[in-house]
Design goal:
5 strands, 7 helices, alpha/beta
């Protein structure tokens, strides 16, 4: 089964029977062809085509516009389209000029050698389609790379935000750890505060039976004094005594 080709071939010849022969040769190869009777019509078709032509095959000797002149203009409209020139006589100067100007990719002599001609057309069409696919894949890769780059930038920004949050949390944890250490130290210093209060009251002879009646008031006074000292050491202010 022959390969299916996507892009058509444009045949330009003022002699319609010759174009018909070419169309019949290419039809079994699943190549779609279109016909133009002269150069102006061919150029109009190229400008209005929904999809580019993979190949334009033009006769050299035509009225109004020769094949080499047509192919030079066709190259400006669709540079990637392959261009074949056909001729039944040898106009060497025209061929050389077209080659030097990059107007033609191949010269096809008339009468056609069918096998050679078909092989040349298939190669040109296949190359065009390969180039189109390569460009499509390149554009797809470029688009995907752009998306990946945008995702990378977004991820980098989110990573930076996360690092900033983590830095803030680390600072808060360090501050909390410091505060806990301070509280532990204060607790170690003050856990025997009741012992100190009791000792202070004994030293001041506040716990005698004679003074027992005023014991509650005396305890409050001593506790206030002791805890005021603790508050000052921890940067606090004790409320006033009632």
């Amino acid at each position: 089964m022959s390969e299916t080709h996507t892009y058509p071939v444009l045949i330009v010849d003022d002699e319609k029977p010759i174009a018909t022969i070419i169309q019949r040769l290419l039809e079994p190869k699943n190549i779609t062809t279109e016909y133009a009777a002269d150069g102006e019509q061919a150029l109009l078709k190229m400008r209005q085509a929904a999809t580019p032509y993979s190949l334009i095959i033009s006769d050299q000797k035509m009225p109004e516009m020769t094949g080499d002149a047509l192919l030079e203009k066709a190259a400006l409209i669709s540079p990637d389209t392959a261009r074949f020139m056909m001729s039944g006589y040898t106009d060497l100067s025209a061929i050389i000029r077209a080659i030097n100007n990059g107007a033609i990719n191949r010269f096809i002599p008339k009468p056609l050698d069918k096998e050679t001609f078909i092989r040349a057309v298939l190669d040109a069409v296949a190359q065009f389609e390969a180039d189109v696919e390569a460009k499509r894949l390149f554009e797809q890769a470029k688009t995907q790379n752009l998306k990946l780059f945008e995702l990378y930038k977004e991820l980098k920004q989110e990573t930076q935000k996360f690092e900033q949050v983590m830095d803030g949390l680390d600072a808060e944890i360090a501050e909390l750890t410091h505060r806990m250490d301070v509280l532990k130290l204060a607790d170690l210093k003050d856990k025997k505060v009741l012992d100190r209060i009791e000792q202070s009251m004994e030293d001041k002879k506040l716990l005698t039976q004679d003074n027992f009646a005023g014991f509650a008031a005396q305890v409050r006074e001593e506790v206030y004094i002791q805890f005021q000292d603790i508050a000052i050491r921890n940067g606090l202010t004790m409320p006033g005594k009632n």
